[in-house]
Specification:
The protein is an alpha/beta fold. It contains 16 helices and 17 strands. It folds into 3 domains: 123 residues, OB fold (Dihydrolipoamide Acetyltransferase, E2P) (Beta Barrel), CATH 2.40.50.460; 257 residues, inorganic pyrophosphatase (n-terminal core) (Alpha-Beta Complex), CATH 3.90.1640; 107 residues, Roll (Diaminopimelate Epimerase, Chain A, domain 1). Strands 13-14-15-17-16 form a 5-stranded mixed β-barrel. Helix 3 packs across helix 11.
């Protein structure tokens, strides 16, 4: 059990002021988005793509198989569809092609110009092949560059040392969208760039970008646009979520996993065809397929997680679990599950033949990318950022890698491993009402860098526990927050089977949410952690 955090007592006024401080007292607007030309090489890249269009050259786009990559690709496809210019599109298959623009992908490309979205910053070999073949390569990406950059015609990435774009934490879809904004100017065409805000919001949330500054403005506008959008994919999303208002959590927990399931288990083109569908019938067919793949993903992930848990060594600071035949598409989710269960960064590797490929997830302030990079001499490939990364290596090197990365982690500050719980405070039971809900809604969307406020209930009296759900795997707990209060509250704990403690006391953190069901709106309290 975790130690109970010390928190302050809050009323509605102090809660409002605390949340306001996260944004320095003011919110960014869409008008605050810095001009795309501030992105290093973006103008050069836009001019080259415009020249290719004027000269009727063959242009190929190479995307990525996660939600950000699929969304980036979809935005480009829709833009080129609108200007009436043919665009060859490739989203690499995770199993056949591997990640991003690669020598393997280039074998099936015959183009004058290739540009990437959400990948390419480490594609030095592919860049050399393009050079030899006389193909201009434009890389647009947002992942952390390594010391050696690919020898490409242009590299557009806010994380480059020589890039002056003031907001570094943007996703691949945003980089692509900004470049298309410059391309629109170069071509002197009339394309409404704000029509893609709903897709951008999807990518920003799914790629766990910080929901502050311009990211907050984009997601807020995008969520609003989703509710009116005539785009067939978003008509289907609205019907599926069935709420009067979409939130970032709906995207993060309901939509993104379904879109991701395509690339994880089969082919990301299924998700792209859903997003760019021209009619609702086509969109619905693709969405049905995404639902089936997501169900399969859940089963595969649960089965492998059980096995992976047995591989966890209690002495290791960094978990390294690996197995033959583990599904490559779910290792990232399994890594997240291990982080959640053991409170340590985790790497999960799938072995096929002599090669192991996998994903890493981190916790607290531990920079998993830098830890992996410290062992690059043992790796074939790696890439990513502070909280998540991907890597591949020879099976014979796994144990050496595991030992070395744990040795490297010994020098880290133990406080770096503490998860960012961020309990905002303790609020009076009588303050939990629709006015409180209105205050919380004012600071949405919630997510990375702007977490949904978590409140503490300390030594609350447990009046009763009921199990619910088809397999009775969820709990409904009735709590009285303090002895002098007559009012009690029901809190929900999903995927947890709880019972009444012997002393009938419970300390937990919880969130306050709006619940809409059968046309009725109510306040729903969700347990986050029990101490």
């Amino acid at each position: 059990m975790s130690k109970t955090p010390r928190v302050t007592k809050l009323d509605k006024k102090s809660l409002f002021e605390t949340l306001e401080r996260r944004f320095g007292g003011e919110f960014s607007k869409l008008g605050d988005i810095p001009h795309p030309s501030l992105l290093h090489d973006a103008q050069r890249a836009a001019s080259r793509i415009a020249r290719a269009i004027h000269n009727k050259e063959c242009i190929t786009l190479v995307g990525d198989y996660d939600v950000d990559g699929v969304t980036s690709t979809s935005i480009c496809v829709l833009f080129f569809r609108e200007i009436g210019y043919p665009l060859e599109t490739i989203i690499p298959n995770r199993f056949r092609d591997g990640y991003g623009v690669s020598p393997k992908i280039l074998e099936r490309v015959d183009a004058d110009l290739i540009f990437t979205v959400d990948n390419g910053i480490t594609a030095t070999e592919a860049a050399d092949i393009c050079k030899q073949r006389g193909i201009d390569l434009i890389i647009t990406d947002h992942h952390t560059p390594s010391e050696t950059l690919p020898d490409a015609y242009a590299i557009v990435n806010p994380k480059l040392d020589n890039c002056n774009y003031p907001f570094k934490d943007i996703c691949g879809a945003q980089v692509a969208w900004l470049l298309l904004g410059l391309l629109k100017q170069e071509l002197h065409v009339s394309v409404n760039m704000s029509q893609y805000l709903e897709l951008l919001a999807l990518a920003v949330v799914a790629d766990v970008m910080p929901l502050i500054g311009i990211n907050r403005a984009i997601v807020q506008a995008g969520l609003k646009q989703m509710m009116q959008s005539k785009r067939p994919s978003f008509v289907i999303i609205r019907e599926f979520i069935n709420k009067s208002r979409l939130t970032s959590e709906d995207i993060g927990f309901q939509i993104a996993p379904r879109l991701n399931a395509a690339g994880r288990l089969e082919d990301a083109s299924i998700a792209m065809e859903f997003l760019i569908a021209k009619d609702e019938e086509s969109a619905f067919k693709q969405f049905e397929l995404l639902n089936k793949l997501n169900d399969l993903r859940k089963t595969t992930e649960a089965d492998t997680t059980e096995i992976a848990i047995l591989h966890v060594s209690p002495d290791d600071k960094i978990i390294v679990a690996y197995g033959e035949g583990w599904h490559e598409g779910v290792v990232g989710i399994i890594a997240s599950r291990l982080v959640g269960q053991f409170g340590r960064p985790a790497l999960v590797l799938s072995i096929e033949g002599e090669r192991a490929k996998g994903s890493a997830r981190s916790i607290g302030e531990v920079n998993i990318y830098e830890l992996i990079k410290s062992q690059k001499h043992l790796l074939e490939k790696f890439g990513g950022h502070k909280m998540a990364a991907g890597l591949s290596l020879h099976v014979k090197d796994i144990e050496a890698f595991k030992k070395a990365i744990n040795k490297e982690a010994q020098s880290l500050d133990p406080d770096d491993f503490i998860p960012k719980e961020e309990i905002i405070g303790e609020i009076e039971s009588s303050s939990i009402d629709f006015e409180l809900l209105e205050i919380l809604e004012r600071f949405e969307p919630y997510g990375e860098a702007n977490p949904r406020p978590r409140f503490l209930a300390e030594n609350a009296e447990v009046l009763g526990v009921k199990l619910f759900g088809a397999d009775r795997s969820h709990s409904r707990i009735s709590l009285r927050f303090s002895p002098h209060e007559r009012q009690s509250h029901e809190l929900l704990a999903f995927r947890e089977v709880l019972s009444v403690p012997e002393d009938r006391k419970m300390t937990c953190s919880y969130t306050v949410n709006k619940n809409e069901f059968n046309g009725r709106t109510s306040i729903q309290l969700m347990i986050e952690r029990i101490y």
